[in-house]
Amino acid sequence: MESRISTDVFTPEQRSTVMRAVPAKNSTPELKVRKLLTHLGARYRLHRRDLPGSPDIVFSGRRLALFVHGCFWHGHDCVRGARVPKSNTGYWLAKVARNRLRDAAAVEALTALGWRAEAVWECELKDMPAVTERLALLMR
To answer: Second label for 71, Cα 20 to 30 Å away, from 78, 79, 122, 138?
Structure first.
């Protein structure tokens, strides 16, 4: 019988507690995007659970759904998103892969319903003028 060695420093219960503390809604990047949209005069709804993927920000009249993604959690191709944890690597690679599949399925389902779906990545928020310009173009 092969023993399974875990390099995780937390017990499964502790890891669960740590993971529960990661916000799914109202994260810092999401709040920054919302503040920017409000400054642009946009009117929007949050976390529409009746739409595929429960988009973070929804413009119903424009049929536009915005997802604000954390680079690590959603496997972006930037430096932070490409980072692979040294411990429990298999778990994290599988988790990010599942997140990417779920994101792609949500975008596909929204598109099939006639919606535009866009992602704003956490790393993009380092260049706020570019994000502002991009969002303003999406709103037209």
So the answer is: 138
Residue span of the structural domain in which 129 resides: 23-139
How many domains are there within the chain?
Answer: 1
Q: Residue 69 belongs to a domain with what CATH number?
A: 3.40.960.10
Cα-based angle 55, 16, 84 (whole degrees, multiple of 5)? 70
Would residue 18 count as lying in a domain?
A: no
Nearest to 118 by CA among 139, 98, 99: 139
Q: Which runs of consecutive H residues, i.e. helices, occur in 7-88?
A: 12-20, 28-39, 71-74, 79-82
Measured distance CA(117)–CA(64) in Å, rounded: 6
